[in-house]
């Protein structure tokens, strides 16, 4: 009877070249998202030593310019509590009361403001209960939901770890790459929900609720504005106040319905000629899940005023509708009007990366660096691509560049340690991993480092150290499927068959998208004579990685066994 694999005590069992997180953490838990940068003020605080005090409203504005939003809000509250006679300013269009009200509204908004363009969280309900599907069976290369739609340029899962959806892990952690799109509801609900990879039931129950909680903390005495008693039609006729009020309702209070009503009244008052209000209506529609209506608003806004942000919002709608090719065309048309715009080039690279077209993604990331040579995401993704292309020396240069730029975190030293080991610069390997363990902010990061240390121990032949490292990985993160798989291989070397089978079953249940546990379990079952379980596991391995030659040979041998029976 012929068995798969070379003639060795543990045939067919192997260590995956780089499983999971090595560079899943490639450049930190820094999310891709643009936040408003600090703005400098030309005016200081109270003039010390001269006996002069700044006018309170102007001082509040100074606090706002210097991003001291709490002080600005408190000072505006004091202005709003003054008697009505002190709030009049006859030579101005607005009274001091209105100015302080508007400024406090903006300050409270800035406390919880997050840019909507990049930071998006897709919940389980949006992925599984999606009614906007264009085609159930998409053509290859036209969908983000179906794995295996790469155009031949994607790396093999044997070389580069993949997510649940079958796409390779990225070099930069973004909200959309925290965990892939699960193919079934059962798989979605079984996704490990840790502090860093928890996926909410819906996007409305995720980040938005947490932001609303933060907004409650900013006002311990209750809400600043009672939205239920607000006359939206009155405020819609005052454009300057209406825009500040809309951002407050949308970002701070997270009341999308009232924000949409205000935006509709305001754009009607502007005779549908203000592009800004159309963009806000589109944002409200997007948040409510009305993607086609949002698309109409963004397109109308682009006709009136060509803006990069509007292009990014519209591309976001197309990606949610699973139309990556349309989003690519939109980005390329935007580059014709805004040549060299980094956000548009980066958007194209991200889409190619999600479509498993790694070579095209790397080319566009290089174009990003031509425009902005300090772009962290581009440097991290190119370094990741070189690492998995068996070029650790080149990857090391990119990670050293990040270190020179001031990035100093666990993930970077983790990757530096891996690159040094595979580039045979052994003197720096352990010191880099020691620094990574020192900088680990939580148990998940420490688990990644211990797992990679286990790989280093396997590489130098110290299997006892590898065993201890993988055990420490599970101590820090009990859902680490890759560590279970490799521990099973070590147990098999020791002759502990039952322990190895139990570990492989655990790894298979935690990560059904990985082919290594299924294949190892199939080989192990075939050795002990359990051919039916071996055949079932081999079929799962083939489904996870259709191009795996060893799996195909094992299935062929098992079919021959069954034919003889």
Structure notes:
Keywords: TPR repeat. Residues 175-186 have a biased composition (Polar residues). Residues 1-48, 146-193 are annotated as: Disordered. Pfam families: TPR_8 (PF13181). TPR repeats lie at residues 481-514. This protein has 565 residues and is mainly α. Among the domains are: 56-111; 392-472, Serine Threonine Protein Phosphatase 5, Tetratricopeptide repeat (Alpha Horseshoe), CATH 1.25.40; 479-564, Tetratricopeptide repeat domain (Serine Threonine Protein Phosphatase 5, Tetratricopeptide repeat, Alpha Horseshoe). The chain has helices at 56-65, 69-80, 96-111, 124-128, 185-189, 207-218, 232-236, 239-253, 256-269, 275-287, 291-304, 308-320, 324-337, 342-354, 358-371, 376-388, 392-404, 410-422, 426-439, 443-460, 463-476, 481-493, 497-510, 516-527, 531-544, 549-564. Helix 16 (376-388) runs antiparallel to helix 17. The protein is elongated and about 90 Å long. The two termini are 13 Å apart. The model is unreliable at 1-51, 179-183, 192-199 and 210-218 (pLDDT under 50).
Task: Map the helices and strands.
Elements: H1 56-65, H2 69-80, H3 96-111, H4 124-128, H5 185-189, H6 207-218, H7 232-236, H8 239-253, H9 256-269, H10 275-287, H11 291-304, H12 308-320, H13 324-337, H14 342-354, H15 358-371, H16 376-388, H17 392-404, H18 410-422, H19 426-439, H20 443-460, H21 463-476, H22 481-493, H23 497-510, H24 516-527, H25 531-544, H26 549-564
């Amino acid at each position: 009877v012929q068995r798969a694999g070379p003639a060795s005590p543990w045939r067919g069992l192997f260590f995956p070249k780089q499983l999971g997180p090595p560079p899943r953490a490639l450049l930190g838990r820094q999310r891709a998202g643009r936040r408003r940068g600090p703005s400098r003020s030309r005016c200081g605080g109270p003039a010390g030593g001269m006996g002069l005090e700044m006018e309170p409203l102007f001082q509040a504005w100074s606090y706002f310019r210097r991003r001291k939003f709490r002080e600005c809000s408190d000072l505006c509250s004091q202005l709003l509590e003054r008697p009505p006679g002190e709030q009049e300013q006859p030579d101005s269009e607005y009274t001091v009361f209105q100015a302080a009200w508007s400024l406090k509204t903006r300050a409270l908004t800035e406390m919880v403001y997050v840019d909507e363009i990049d930071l998006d969280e897709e919940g389980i309900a949006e992925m599984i209960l999606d009614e906007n599907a264009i085609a159930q069976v998409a053509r290859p290369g036209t969908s983000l939901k179906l794995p295996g739609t790469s155009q031949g340029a994607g790396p093999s899962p044997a070389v580069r770890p993949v997510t649940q959806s079958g796409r390779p892990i990225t070099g930069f952690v973004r909200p959309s790459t925290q965990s892939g799109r699960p193919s079934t509801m059962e798989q979605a609900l079984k996704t490990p929900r840790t502090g860093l990879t928890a996926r909410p039931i819906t996007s409305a129950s995720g980040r938005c609720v947490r932001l609303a909680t933060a907004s409650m903390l900013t006002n311990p005495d209750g809400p600043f504005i009672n939205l239920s008693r607000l006359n939206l039609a009155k405020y819609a006729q005052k454009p300057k106040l209406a825009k500040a009020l809309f951002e407050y309702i949308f970002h701070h209070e997270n009341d999308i319905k009232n924000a949409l009503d205000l935006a509709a009244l305001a754009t009607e008052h502007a005779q549908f000629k203000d592009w800004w209000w159309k963009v806000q209506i589109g944002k409200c529609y997007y948040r409510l899940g009305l993607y086609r209506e949002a698309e109409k608003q963004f397109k109308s806004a682009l006709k009136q005023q060509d803006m990069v942000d509007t292009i990014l919002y519209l591309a976001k709608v197309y990606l949610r509708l699973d139309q990556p090719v349309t989003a690519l065309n939109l980005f390329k048309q935007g580059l014709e009007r805004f040549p060299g715009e980094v956000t548009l080039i980066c958007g194209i690279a991200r889409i190619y990366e999600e479509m498993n077209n790694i070579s095209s993604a790397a080319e566009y990331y290089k174009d990003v660096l031509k425009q902005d040579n300090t772009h962290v995401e581009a440097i991290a993704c190119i370094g990741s691509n070189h690492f998995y292309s068996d070029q650790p020396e080149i990857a090391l240069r990119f990670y050293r560049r990040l270190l020179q730029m001031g990035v100093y975190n666990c993930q970077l030293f983790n990757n530096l340690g891996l690159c040094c080991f595979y580039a045979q610069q052994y003197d720096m390997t352990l010191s880099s991993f020691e620094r990574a363990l020192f900088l680990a902010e939580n148990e998940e990061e420490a688990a990644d480092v211990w797992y990679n240390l286990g790989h280093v121990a396997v590489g130098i032949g110290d299997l006892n150290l590898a065993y201890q490292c993988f055990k420490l990985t599970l101590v820090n993160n009990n859902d680490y499927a890759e560590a279970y798989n490799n521990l099973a291989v070590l147990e098999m070397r020791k002759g502990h068959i039952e322990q190895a089978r139990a570990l492989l079953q655990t790894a298979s249940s935690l990560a059904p998208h990985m082919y290594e546990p299924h294949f190892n379990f199939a080989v192990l079952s075939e050795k002990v004579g359990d051919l039916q379980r071996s055949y079932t596991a081999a079929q799962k391995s083939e489904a996870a990685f259709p191009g795996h030659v060893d799996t195909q040979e094992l299935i062929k041998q098992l079919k021959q066994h069954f034919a003889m029976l």
